[in-house]
Amino acid sequence: MSAVETASSTRVARHTPKRRYRPDLHGIRGLAILGVVLFHLFGNGQVSGGIDIFLTVSGFLFTAMLLREAAENDGKINFLAYFGRLFRRIFAPAAVVVIVTAIAGMLILPYTQHTQMLREAVASLLYYENFELINSQLSYDAAGPETSVFQHFWSLSVQGQFYLVIPVVILALVWIARKRNQPAVFWVGTVLVIVLIASMAWAIIYGAQLQDEAYLATTTRLWQLAFGGLLALVIDHLRLAGGIAIRAGLAGSVYGRLHRIHL
């Protein structure tokens, strides 16, 4: 590689998120799990914020990982390794749950529910269960004999769609950055801001009209993934004193619990 190519590659990779172990993410995931549990126990139809946190964390991790890899490796991503990790960590365990649940459903549920259940099993395996639920006019907070046994796969479907699309988006933006000899962070950040604003606006509009559908839709959840991605881009440059960071975290948690929104 010539000196000019090396300088260009260095410029494209400038300010990309650093690779580091973040133990704080485990605590955030714990809060997300707690939020989901509390929602189903005491939610009364109000969002706990647990799913929002999971989606934000996914946006944070995958944006940082893929941008770093593409920017530092001449615009290339090892798709075999990427999808191999996804298969081992997400698809394989989820497939076991779906198959076992489907078999149990065939044995336990009435015959009249088998067709819809199998449709949702396929939708869950292929990560479009949220669209299947919308098309089936199922409410996420429904309870009773008609409740889908696979409805909780809707959020994993949103994540799966994101995992499939985000590497292509990152590659395209890194390619543009290389062509223009600019930091890839600039292009990725610009697109994430646009997605965040557009998706949040749509979530407000859609939620005011069809709340149940808006809750499950991918388009109304993209802003959370985009917010996580933006946070990944700037977190290395944020500096908060320990006391301020703790108080800010507690204030955010309390605010989220006191100002629950329907989405």
From TrEMBL:
Transmembrane found in the keyword field: yes
Domain Acyltransferase: 24-250
Pfam families with a match to the protein in the record: Acyl_transf_3 (PF01757)
Superkingdom per UniProt: Bacteria
Keywords on record: Membrane, Transmembrane, Transmembrane helix
Keyword flag Membrane: yes
Residue ranges of the TM segments: 28-47, 53-70, 90-109, 160-177, 184-205, 225-250
InterPro entries: Acyl_transf_3_dom (IPR002656), Acyltransferase_3 (IPR050879)
Name by which UniProt lists this protein: Acyltransferase 3 domain-containing protein
Species this chain originates from: Yaniella flava
